[in-house]
Amino acid sequence: MNATAPHGNTTAAAGARLGEVIAALETLLPAESVIVDTEPRRVYECDGLSAYRQLPGCVVLPNTIAQVQAVLRLCHEHRVPVVARGAGTGLSGGALPIAEGVLLSLAKFSDILEIDPLARTARVQPGVRNISISEAVAEFGLFYAPDPSSQIACTIGGNVAENSGGVHCLKYGLTVHNVLGIKFITSDGELIELGGQTLDSPGLDLLALFNGSEGMLGVIVEITVKLLPQPPVTEVLLAAFDDVGAAGNAVAAIIAAGIIPAGLEMMDQGITRAAEDFVHAGYPRDAAAILLCELDGIAEETRAQLQAVEQILRDAGASDIRVAADAAARARFWAGRKAAFPASGRIAPDYYCMDGTIPRKCIAEVLERISALAREHELEVVNVFHAGDGNLHPLVLYDVSQPGELERAEQLGGRILEACVAAGGTVTGEHGVGVEKINQMCVQFSSAELTQFHAVKAAFDEHGLLNPGKAVPTLNRCAEFGRMHVHHGQISHPELERF
Amino acid sequence: MNATAPHGNTTAAAGARLGEVIAALETLLPAESVIVDTEPRRVYECDGLSAYRQLPGCVVLPNTIAQVQAVLRLCHEHRVPVVARGAGTGLSGGALPIAEGVLLSLAKFSDILEIDPLARTARVQPGVRNISISEAVAEFGLFYAPDPSSQIACTIGGNVAENSGGVHCLKYGLTVHNVLGIKFITSDGELIELGGQTLDSPGLDLLALFNGSEGMLGVIVEITVKLLPQPPVTEVLLAAFDDVGAAGNAVAAIIAAGIIPAGLEMMDQGITRAAEDFVHAGYPRDAAAILLCELDGIAEETRAQLQAVEQILRDAGASDIRVAADAAARARFWAGRKAAFPASGRIAPDYYCMDGTIPRKCIAEVLERISALAREHELEVVNVFHAGDGNLHPLVLYDVSQPGELERAEQLGGRILEACVAAGGTVTGEHGVGVEKINQMCVQFSSAELTQFHAVKAAFDEHGLLNPGKAVPTLNRCAEFGRMHVHHGQISHPELERF
Q1: According to the UniProt entry, where is the signal peptide (chains A, B) (predicted)?
Q2: Is the ipTM of this complex over 0.90?
């Protein structure tokens, strides 16, 4: 939307269009499926990125595909924007509502439609919670692999929209690697089916395109996921290091040895201590960093890999290596990692979680750069991350009650992401771009590349009605961001100078 | 192009535009890189689908990215179509030239640019042969997994364009699962980079979209592939069955047991006998069908899986099970499978290879349906296929010198693909759509779905200059195809009635 937008795009006109849509929705849907009162709308004003809030114009909760089609057709006809929402656990503001728009909740699409243990697939509605799939198929010895930390709450539709990862995605892949097919509704209300039960499908690979598309291309109403056999044996080991760089190098050495652990996580001293104090996982409080490594498979294979990993860790200088003796011990090792985000509340009132990804070989170098940036911004950063796939989650600690700290934290976060790009990485590993990292997309991509993204977006959504303003910045915005980064004709960020 | 195209689209006008492009190319590129003489152009008149032939308007062989950009800019400016070509081994006519167009060969892009054994990646040019990558990285104990039968000749650029598979894709995935990044040139000459060394990348997943896009979206000039560690142990077993259905059910049972073989191939009696007579692989000539199963991994795991597979095969009614004793025996077992296509030349002068994919559980049912269709068309069909992933390769045998046989073979091929779709499968598993299966795409997809494909294509190539007429049919074409299928108001194909 530029400054010379026609008068039809004023807020008043947009409000009038929304009013027409609401009136029509109230005749089309059951009364309890259209929320216009302010208080119940507040539930939807933010997702997991709670620093950004916006009350939606209205909320609809359809419970049939035909109703979703009707909502989208109406919004298309009246040019009213639509933001789809699953459980609202996203961390990048991807489900942030629009004041003059419709918030379309898929909460009522919560059925598992079919489980085929022979084909090892499940056909589910988008509002099914991630963990519910694994629970439902456990009786067949199967599980659904991607396991974001929010898996007890987040829904599979949101997982597809964000291409969610988790601890196990190093071995078992991201959501895109575990989704076989979807049905979605286009911005003008058509039902389209992509993929299916076969390994490949002819035509353009629109299925992969949907994974991580952050609600920009269509509204997903059904998903077929791949199920995997539960591994017969699991082992978890914990290694302590006196030096963060040595821990980073150990990660690279494990992968270089041809071993793909089911999970390979790293925590620095700050977050190790916070987690230990919080859940008493048995972590060494004096280690500069710890690694958690999970191996799974048949007994012989897992044992062989465990021995190999122990040797690599010793060679890399681990000061202490412990193998969990049983399921309870394994759960305790993981409990600290899983509680890392809330545990950071013990050391600071607020935290800002970043999600950059870097080549594994740069872990030590980028961690040092993050320390330097933190000192420069006079803030503390603790690091907990999916080390095996180079996906960092630096937590910038701050206190929102201290004037200027939130702004400094956001600025530092942006600098950290730019450092990830400079190292050959990306601004997001699994949390999506949303509204949070939209400026950093200007650092990641060229104008030609962003233009191509916009062209593909327009091929699905000509009028830009689906989740506008998220995920892909306009070229105008990038020009503006570029100007902010330049002082006296000089690019001010050392990170950007490397481009 | 419709019947009322403006006069600028007559053949004469198109020829004039091509003439202008050729004149400009001759000043831009070295003389040996622009082929206009008829005889040397003949080399490019078909790919592996030799039934379709067309002399290209001219052939260019650029050897730098800047030259590819110049060629595309020129063609864009003059609205001249461009068909990109790798080794020309494709089986669906994807590289079929256009009379008034440019054939852009990537043959000179044949360098391996970088091997990173630690990150386990290789950065290569598109004209590098598939097998050259595995050869180059063997010294590091690594290999590149997708292995189409044509791997000694086909190039990695063509593999990406067709999303090629191979014997090992059941375990290691298709090309899309093994490509980490590409650089491509847009239809108007911009260089765009997608993906990289990290597991995920922000923005829309255009990288996956490129895999299998059949040259419609851009011209790939660089590819970063994932490398895998060579498995320490490999076992191959052969099982004979007196009944084709029992062999099909054995395949489903192996997968259902949670075992993912490195390869799981099936051959029926016709092709088993032809292959045995051709290469003396030691196949049982009296079996109704044979299965070849390859297992790989560490010694203990592979041994455990071998025992499990043997038991499953016995339970499924295998009459004979043999495990290859050594590397020579393993090579002999595979030699027959790899020579299956040429071996069919012993039983018929010509063959037409289909590439449908079906859910594994339908193998027995679809094979019966294919037999019935073959009888109806008075032609013989032999079957050799990637059973583990349900990817059928029925070979329709015919004699082109017998009037009407080619037409009958094509008709039967179409019916077979439609039967695959009716069983919940797709019209292509790994050979692409090209010109060969374009009518069957009308059976596979709805008008809304095809419209979405066209919109995405247009987002990359507004003027439809890149490989026009391939892969995705126009709605007009489908309407025409639909009319051909209806006689006296009745749909004539039993396959279609199931939709």
Answers
A1: none
A2: no
